[in-house]
Write a structure and sequence with these properties.
Chains A, B: It is found in: Mitochondrion. The structure is a homodimer. Chain A is of the alpha/beta class. Chain A is 44% helix and 10% strand. Chain A has two domains: 176 residues, Rossmann fold; 241 residues, Up-down Bundle (Dehydroquinate synthase-like, alpha domain). Chain A is built from 15 helices and eight strands. In chain A, a hairpin with a 4-residue loop joins strand 6 and strand 7. The two termini of chain A are 36 Å apart.
């Protein structure tokens, strides 16, 4: 496995000008969103660039939970600007948009779907190094500063998809706890839930040596390899930190220790799932966020359109998912339950999934302001078939889901997903 | 921090031909030593290259614990061969020699000392990418497949030194448990002790945020950054695995699980210390191995010259070192002692160093065939001044030693090192 470079510490954002100067970069595209444009993280980054006389142009039109349209807008801008390097200051939406701006300016004649994951896109591998990208996360969630993945909504497909390739990885992630202080409490909560699911899904993903088909050449290995001894270390450590610090970070915006530890946890989880992969919570979340039939607008999110934040849509199915995956590896599910504080001494293996599911539900309820199932987000049983159809194309993550029927048994798999969505209606 | 790519699993060596073909490499320098030349790891690697029709030339003259002379010999060979890439199959000596062959063929007009660590060398930074290097470790110890460090004896200086720079890092480490089966038991033991000290030293090194002087530009950060939240995870996991599996691996050469886990532990410890650094055990080990006044030849090492293996020379001072460093961070020393099985519930902070020291001594004694102190290696009190003088130039690691006087208080530092060597005479 490969990891990006990570720099962690309060104040390290101020070094980013020197980083670009050290790289010999003359013109940087600073990618952010309209809200952040006026906030401290961007201000510090801009001052750092100016201090080192690195020229820059700002793109601040990134959309939260980006779609094909907003990505294409950003790519056109970048093609016209022709920067030598990219600097993303923001959350997952900003970092993922910047990765795609970088990709498509390095392949100016590629069509948009060429690199998009199969089966929705062509799954074309990136066969040359891209321009340097430095990511400065302002949320503690996505871990995108460590991964080679960029996710967005594909117009007309009612599902999210993305591009996943090692070459998309940022050169450097600058994790500065001073930058997550601008997060509203609701963003703390939902981005922290993303970390929770990254760590739990990568910890329970099928093991790397059971992934089929085995590639005939190492270059064909997917970015998501299945749970492995190195990703395990990152995923478990991130889970421990999230269980301990997320409730504090949500409750008290001035708890600097909790916020700093959550930023680190997000990065650790990023390395874990960036190599091991995620599975059902993420695979099922894309149609949930994307379809949003009742135009749900999550409280605390200041955006001019309905939104089921990514972290909310992954966590809402988690109690159902880990009940379902429990039998695949009871020991791992019990180890996770123990991290939530469950005394597992007398728990039987058969109950491992149920016990983890209950611990998770309790954690979510105590965290506060979370929908207790898909119903609370406005979904009804009539939406389940659409959700299943929006999940099926997430082959890249579903192939890592334990207990799920393989692609060859398509009908059985659909039935299992239907059961999972129904079970996720209420917890 | 940055990590090399690691591929782990039984049989993965057979993929190395495809790796070079994927890289577009036409001619590989295969670097190994005379013993390994005839053994299975080299045989498998050669077959893999031939299967993919990658041309190669073999350099099998690497010396165990290499010196300036053997490095220069290897570099001359490489300059004449002009390979596109390097493949190291062997232990730390082989991997470190291959790193330096790569470096000096990429800088053909550099003088040998230019890149060597200060103060013995010029400490010139490597300012361009080197040729691809793939490392296939055949011992479970050095972790060199993950690091940017190459260590050797400097003629006439009675001390080891080396080159340390991120650019020296291998592109890929192929960790194949089938390759460590050729290790004699004595090599298992001493290379495992290297892992033990890598993990303990990096776990107890001064924290990254206390390292002084602070660099004015991120490019000036040393490869060894001090203990940090990411290296901690690797170091502790490696320590746990070593305490559990090293005794089994030494006792039973057919214990495939223990051997495989030790190979993984060595790699994890490599990532840990490769980013956090090592300190006193390593700093003091270089003159121990290098000076060897009684021409000690460690039992089980089939080499035609006297040898204090690297792992033996680092572990021999460990009980004294961690007694000394205990007060710097009692919690960390107690956490380490707990991994050795000590019940720390009622141990006072003041005893943390002593308790870890005792746990270590007991572990070393039980492992068997280890010298119980410097006396058993043939050192006497009259050698201590020479050992101290050989340690002082190891500034790169001494700056990470907790409790040690700074460079400015040179005499106090010498006195502390003298005390440590005297304390290490017997345990």
């Amino acid at each position: 496995m490969a990891a990006s470079s990570i720099r962690f510490g309060p104040g390290v954002t101020a070094e980013v000008g020197m980083d670009f100067r050290n790289l010999g970069v003359r013109r940087v595209a600073l990618v952010t969103d309209a809200t952040l444009r006026a906030l401290r993280p961007v201000e510090v980054a801009v001052a750092a660039l100016e201090r080192e006389r690195v020229r820059y142009a700002v793109y601040a039109d990134v959309r939260v939970e980006p779609g094909e349209g907003s990505i294409k807008h950003a790519v056109s801008w970048a093609k016209a600007e022709q920067p030598d390097a990219f600097l993303a200051v923001g959350g997952g939406s900003v970092m993922d948009t910047a990765k795609l701006m970088n990709l498509y300016t390095c392949y100016p004649s590629a069509s948009f779907l060429d690199f998009v994951n199969k089966p929705l896109g062509g799954g074309r591998p990136i066969d040359k190094p891209l321009k340097p990208l430095i990511c400065v996360p302002t949320t503690a969630g996505t871990g995108s500063e460590t991964t080679g993945t960029a996710i967005f909504d594909l117009a007309g497909k009612r599902a999210k998809t993305g591009v996943a390739h090692r070459a998309l990885k940022p050169l450097l992630g600058i994790c500065d706890p001073l930058n997550t202080r601008t997060m509203p409490s609701a963003v703390h909560a939902s981005s922290g839930l993303d970390v929770l699911c990254h760590s739990l899904e990568s910890w329970t993903a099928i093991p790397y040596h059971e992934r089929v088909p085995r590639p005939t050449n190492p270059i064909l290995r997917p970015a998501y390899q299945g749970a492995n001894p190195i990703s395990d270390i990152f995923s478990l450590q991130a889970l421990r930190a999230t269980v301990k610090y997320l409730p504090r970070a949500v409750r008290d915006p001035d708890d600097a220790e909790a916020q700093s530890q959550m930023l680190l946890a997000a990065t650790l989880a990023g390395v874990g799932f960036g190599n091991a992969g995620v599975h059902l919570c993420h695979g099922m979340s894309y149609p949930i966020s994307s379809q949003n039939p009742a135009r749900y607008h999550h409280p605390g999110y200041v955006v001019p359109h309905p939104i089921i934040p990514h972290g909310v849509s992954v966590a809402v199915t988690a109690p159902a998912v880990f009940r379902f995956t429990g039998p695949s590896n009871p020991d791992r599910h019990l180890a996770a339950a123990e991290i939530f504080g469950v005394d597992i001494a007398n728990v039987k293996s058969e109950s491992a999934g149920e016990v983890l599911s209950e611990a998770l539900s309790e954690f979510l309820v105590k965290l506060g302001d979370q929908p207790r199932g898909l119903k609370a987000l406005g979904f009804s049983e009539g939406d389940v078939d659409g959700l299943v159809e929006g999940t099926i194309p997430q082959r890249r993550v579903l192939m890592l889901a334990p207990n799920l029927a393989s692609e060859e048994e398509a009908e059985k798999g659909r039935e299992q997903l239907r059961g999972l969505f129904l079970d996720a209606m209420e917890y």
